[in-house]
Amino acid sequence: MGYLETVKASSNIPVCAGFGVRSKADVELLEPYVDGIIVGSALVEAIEQKITANDFLNTLRA
Asked: Does the pTM exceed 0.85?
């Protein structure tokens, strides 16, 4: 996470991270180092499985 700390400290714009974010544990790992978290593939899978938006978000909330 050192890289993300360096990027955030060096940037005056919000820093977001993603790729492989699928769970609350993933969010909790990234949360201290970024301003936002990007969820891609897990969202597509949730849509395909007809998981409600609320249920999906509850799996990610830290």
From this structure: no
